[in-house]
Each structure stands twice: as structure tokens, then as C-alpha cells.
Amino acid sequence: MIAKDRAGRILALLLLVHISTGASLAYSTRSPAGSHPDKTREKILRTLNDERRRRRLPALQWEPTVSDVAQAHSGLMGASRELAFRPGGASSIDFRLKEAGVPDHMKLLNIMKVHNPANVVTQLLKKPRESNLLHPLVNHVGIGVERHGEWWVTLVFIQRVARIEEFPRTVWDRTRAVDLRGSLLRGFSEPVLKVTQPGGSVLTQELEQQGRDFWTRIAFVGGPGEYSVELIASSNMGEVVASLMPVYVGVPAPSGDEGAPLGEKKDLTEPQMEREMVKLVNEDRRRHGIGPLVLNSELARTARLHSIAMAEAAIVAHDLPGEPDVEARLEEAGILAVSAGENIARGTGIRAAQRSLMASPAHRETILKKEFTEIGIGIFQASPGDIFVTQHMVQPFRPMDPQVLQRRVLEVLNQRREALELPPLEEDSRLSALAGEHTASMAAADSFLRPESMGKKAAAMGIKYKKATTEVFSTPSPEELTSSVGIGRDDYNKIGIGTVQVERSSRGVGLIWVTLIYAEMRAQHR
Predict the structure, then answer these.
(1) Choice between 15 and 158, residue whose per-residue pLDDT is larger
(2) Half-sphere exposure (Cβ direction) of 29: Cα atoms closer than 13 Å
(3) Angle (CA) 106 111 115, round 5°
(4) Fewest CB atoms within 10 Å of the CB: 22, 62, 208, 512?
(5) How far apart are CA 23 and CA 168, in angstroms?
(6) What is the DSSP letter of 437?
(7) How far is CA 322 from CA 212, 233, 313, 318, 325, in A?
(8) What is the pLDDT of residues 414-468, one digit of tens each?
(9) How deeply is 109 buried, as exposed, middle or buried, from its count of CB atoms within 10 A (0-12, 13-18, 19+)?
């Protein structure tokens, strides 16, 4: 009878979770009218803020939506008599927070069982250096408390970056465009919106902005399925995820944590976790038809140092106080990269961390970037089931043979002309000599130079043409030259190409300076 009674109570609480968090029709971080904590939770909030004020930290704000999740979780723990993040076989609190639109970047959880709610702060301060209550970046808290014999308490400390107006979680009409409106909190700026479509492609959505307010209209053009709508903002510690909202278009939202358990391997050392995570990254790339990344031990070392620094500061951030940005860190380590990306996470294990990164449009873009060829992953385990992760991915600088580079430029241009159904351009050695001279001057000056007096120089070299156009570029790759205007002119039949690749410049690593001289040559030079 007891088991049956407990099962009945757990079922009732699961239904409560489904209604209050798992199957909500819309996201919103605005406080509903009349949304205030009950007396017990108000008392806990007051004791939390008394301790923060005593330590000269700003007070925490009550977070209604997160408190709904926390309250449901405390109820589940009490009913099952299990102090756990997934009590009684229910969906994990991580899943339910995700379904409430709470991003992972600054989400700190505490669960406890106490004889008296007044003892919550005492429990939190048993290890002051590790206490989530004293984290300087958290600014909001969700509180859940349920009495089943003893008091079962759930605390969710978050860094709220933006306020979002009501935004749908499920959209059944696929032709419907949805308005997204919100405002950034103080200390955050430059909002960017990215949307992952069901097929995996990531789109960057334009945002209108006035002061800290922003708005846009999103059309779900990728067909039915799950979309991820991610708002990113800039701060003095780099980019942060302000909101990450799964949106289900033309399909029902999941009612439970269908992806769990994740099958985390137990008792792995940090180096073993790093190697396993490289495999997970490459599996994700392979599933999307992208080549694998090669492990770079020096990249792994820089990533490991950043993970250790994040754990020591108890902050998941790209730019930590007193630490240079990722580009400077890589350069200090002697790593020359044409382009570089950094993903950071905190999770219960490598599979959970990788899944959360792939669920984020911005992090997913980094993992699936085709140009990246090398990777280094650094993991620091703060405690069992609590890891800090840094992923460094780069397109390393590879010097190209000058003749090979010049031939590649011609191939790119003529492939584009073929697509435009235009005849191929023929390289003229004298025009290339003239273009090469100009390109060398730009590379030496580390600056664009106007191609003046080209006509006089061509005449001095005995080059005769009807008309000509000169264009100059700086680019990390020949493939970027398809934006050239002259490439689409059907009256040009000859070209001169000048290229110089430089290891370092004020514009970046591995930059290629290019001069293109398009010409319609007189008959004797055809």
C-alpha cells in the first residue's frame, strides 16, 4: 500500500510538472501580475539576500518561471524521498529548465533536505568558496520548497541577461511568423539572434534595436520540427547566451526528457574525457557530412588552462578577469590560426556538455565550421559530475606555394565564370607581372593602395588593350574572390593575377593580398 500511495503521489506531481513547465504554451521572463513567493519561499529569499548584503553582494531577484520549475522539482524529491536531480525516474531538472528557456551558461543548482527552511543558508555556506549563493555574477534565483516530513529545497541561481516578452513554445501554423521582443539588462549590449532549423543549418536573424530594447519577426522556414532560438549578448566577459528557447513547429513538444540517460562513461580521468569528447565532436561533424578535426596537443593545453581558470573563478565565460581573449591566448602559445573558435560549457559529463553545445545555434556553428581542421579540448573536473569544458578549434595557417596560390585564384575565378555561362579567362603573364608588382607594394605597406598609373605602366611594357579594370583584395582564402565585379563581365578575356600571402599582418594571420587586372586585349594578343 505504501508503494502504491507513493506512486500515486509521484504521478500527480509529474502531471503538475507537465502543466507548469514541460508543456507551457509560451516562454516569458516577464513577471506575471501578482507573481510573488509564498511566505516560506519569501523567507528563504530574504535570508539569502541578507547573507549577500553582509558580503557586499547585490541582492538576488525572485525569478517566477524558474521558481515554478524548482517548486515542481522539490515536490518530486519529497514524494520519492530521493535527493536527486532526476528523482523517482522523472525528467531531469536540467531538461525542465531548458524547456523553460533557461540557458546553461550561468545556471547553478543546489538541492538539499533540511529540518527547517531557516537552515538553508547554513547548508549553502558549508563550503563558502564553492557556494553558489556567493557567486558574483548571479542576479536572480528560483526557489522550490516542499514539506514531506523534512523540507526538500531546490535553488536555481541564474544570471539573467535579458527580459523576453511572451514567445510561443509550440507553433502549429507553419506559415505563421512570430514576433520576438525583449530588452537587455544593464551591462549587456549588442544582441544577436541565431536560429537552428530542424535540418541543422543555422541562420542569423536581423534584430531591430532602440536603447536596450530589441525586436524582430521570425519565420520558421525550415519545415516542421524542433528549432532552437538563441539570443546572444556581449558583456565585459565576452559573449554570453541570454536565452535559448526550443520551439516546436508543426510537431508536439516533448513531454519528458527523452534523451536521457546519456550513457556517460564512469571514472574517466580528465585526459580520457578530453579524448572521448574529441570523438563526440567528430561524430557530430560526420553526421553533417563534415570532415573530422585532428587533435592538436598545444590547443588542448590552452583549452585546459582556460577550463582550470573558469573552475577557479566559478564562472563560465570566454574572457575572465585578468585573462587575454582567446586570440591572444592562442598567439601567446605560438599557435598561428587564420580563424579560431572557442566553445565553453559546464556540465555533469562530456555527453551532456556536448549535447548542450549542439543545442545552441552559436556553439553548433563553431563545431560544424568546415574551415576548421584542428581541435584541442581541455576539461577540469571540479567534483564528480561537475566538469568545466573548453573547446578550441582552428583553421591553422598553412603557407601556400606562390605558383600554386596563383593557379588556385585562376581556378576559382573560372569556376565562377563557368557557372555564369561565360568563357574562361586566360592569364596574361605581362598583366600578372604588373599585378604582382602592385600586390607586393600593398603587402609591404600592410594597406590597400590605389592602382594608379596602371595604364602608363602597361604601355611601357608594350601591353595593348581595349579596356581594363583593376581590383584589389585582402582575403583569408582564394574562394572569397567570387565577389569580384570583373568576374561577371563577358567582354573581358584576359587576366593578370598578383598574390602575396603574409604570415602576420594588422588584418590577421595568413592574409592573402590580391590584385586582379581584367582586360579585353587587342587581337594580336589574343
Answers:
(1) 158
(2) 26
(3) 145
(4) 208
(5) 11
(6) H
(7) 28, 21, 11, 12, 10
(8) 999 999 999 999 999 999 999 999 999 999 999 998 887 777 788 778 888 888 8
(9) middle
Contact 501, 512 (CB under 8 A): yes
String of DSSP letters for 29-95: -SPPTT----HHHHHHHHHHHHHHHHTT-PPPEE-HHHHHHHHHHHHHHHHHT--SSSGGGPPPHHH
Q: Which pTM does this prediction carry?
A: 0.72
Contact of 512 with 478, CB cutoff 8 Å: yes
- Residue 496 burial (CB count, 10 A): 26
CB 248 within 8 A of CB 171: yes
* Predicted pLDDT at 230: 92
Closest C-alpha to 279, from 367, 346, 385, 347 = 367
Return d(Cα 74, Cα 155) in angstroms, integer: 9
Q: In what order do the strands lie in the sheet with 61-62?
A: 61-62, 140-148, 150-158, 107-114
Give 461-481 pLDDT, tens digit per residue: 888 888 889 999 999 889 989
* C-alpha 196 chain-centroid distance: 11
Which DSSP symbol is given to 18?
I
Report how far residue 309's alpha carbon sits from residue 319's, in angstroms, rounded to the nearest whole number: 10
DSSP state, 206? P
Q: Strand pairing partners for 182?
A: 164, 214
User: What distances in angstroms separate CA 317 from CA 139, 309, 333, one per listed residue?
Assistant: 16, 10, 20
- Residue of 414, 435, 436, 429 lying closest to 486 (CA atoms): 414
In the sheet with 508-521, reading across from the earlier edge strand, the strands are: 426-427, 494-505, 508-521, 465-475
As a whole number of angstroms, the distance between CA 319 and CA 329 comes to 10
Spatial separation of the C-alpha atoms in residues 6 and 14, rounded to whole Å: 12
Radius of gyration for the chain, computed over Cα atoms and rounded to the nearest angstrom: 29
User: How many distinct helices (H) and strands (E) make up the chain?
Assistant: 13, 23
Q: Give the pLDDT confidence score for residue 105 in this predicted structure.
A: 63
Check pLDDT > 70 for residue 382: yes
Place of cell 585526459: 271
Give the strand pairing for 162-164 and 177-184: antiparallel
